[in-house]
Amino acid sequence: MNNKPLIYLAFIILVLGGGLVIGANNVPGDWYQSLAKPSFNPPNWVFAPVWSILYVIIGVVGARTWLSPLRRSIAMRLWFAQLVFNFAWSPAFFGLQDLMSAMIIILGLLVSVAGFILVSWRQDRTAALLFLPYLAWVAFATALNAAILALN
């Protein structure tokens, strides 16, 4: 029996489902609306579709890594680390309303995503390339978090 489709499905459900649950429990409310934001802050409606697409990609990359010889490698550890940082950011930013802790968390996320790309590049170029849009979005989100921190 080939379990590959089930593993891909499990990773996508874990990541997308986890992201949606965390997002639903840490919604931007009046506090977020009251914050000063930089001119490059996108409209709120952009975040849900972008993150949903990225969560599917993150799940696919996690499954690829799990199914490869990289399962016991630093790449898999970095994949899990980025997921922990990713899932911790919204509760810190929106739940605790702690801009500085959120900044530290998103820097950890940025480093773990970049690290995953670097260590995966030679053994699974597809996984590394799939993480490039994620890296770009997290870099943008880091700049946005830093700007909101500076303005407030």
UniProtKB/TrEMBL annotation:
Membrane-protein topology: Multi-pass membrane protein
Major subcellular site: membrane
Bilayer-spanning residue ranges: 7-25, 45-67, 74-94, 100-121, 128-151
Taxonomy, superkingdom: Bacteria
Keyword hit for GTP-binding: no
Pfam families for the chain: TspO_MBR (PF03073)
Cell location: Membrane
Keywords of this entry: Membrane, Transmembrane, Transmembrane helix
Gene3D superfamilies named among the record's database cross-references: TspO/MBR protein
The family this protein is said to belong to: Belongs to the TspO/BZRP family.
Record's protein name: Tryptophan-rich sensory protein
